[in-house]
Automatic annotation (TrEMBL):
Keywords: ATP-binding, Cytoplasm, Magnesium, Metal-binding, Nucleotide-binding, tRNA processing. Belongs to the TsaE family. Coiled coil: none annotated. The lineage of its organism: Bacteria, Bacillati, Bacillota, Bacilli, Bacillales. This is tRNA threonylcarbamoyladenosine biosynthesis protein TsaE. NCBIfam families: T6A_YjeE (TIGR00150). Its main location: cytoplasm. It is found in: Cytoplasm. Pfam families: TsaE.
């Protein structure tokens, strides 16, 4: 596990933006944290790093939003799903040609691939966030080391 403290929303987005420049098709990133922790803020920076031109916002009521950049971005919020990701065909997006970012992934743990980058975002102050990166698999280990370099 690796931990990083950011001191503003812009700094959180900059970390995510750098991460986006390092990913390839089939990348799966899970985001967990309390309401208001910064999951969508993180994803906005990630979208910018992928070259997404549209405004990235929370897919809370639609479950998933798709954006086009260097790679397709599948932004999912599974907070309202019951037990599995089968309801939205999660496997299709995880094994697809883009990058899947799954918010509230702890709710569908059994539907997630074994190898992924798990990120937990915690508020440690008004603007400060603790980002904890837990890479599972060599690909993700390499990416995280590059992001934090």
């Amino acid at each position: 596990m690796y931990t990083l403290i950011t001191h503003s929303a812009a700094e959180t987005q900059a970390v995510a933006e750098k991460l986006a420049t390092l990913v390839t098709a089939g990348t799966v990133i899970t985001l967990n944290g309390d309401l208001g922790a910064g999951k969508t803020t993180f994803t906005q920076g990630f979208g910018k790093g992928l070259g997404v031109k549209r405004n990235v916002n929370s897919p809370t009521f639609t479950i998933m939003k798709q954006y086009q950049g260097r790679l397709p971005l599948y932004h999912m919020d599974v907070y309202r799903l019951e037990d599995t990701g089968d309801d939205i065909g999660l496997e299709e997006y995880i094994n697809g040609d883009g990058v899947a970012i799954v918010e509230w992934s702890n709710l569908i743990e059994s539907s997630l691939p074994a190898e992924r980058l798990a990120i937990t975002i915690e508020r440690v102050g008004d603007e400060e966030r603790r980002l904890t990166f837990e890479p599972v698999g060599q690909k993700y280990e390499t990416i995280v080391k590059e992001v934090l370099a």
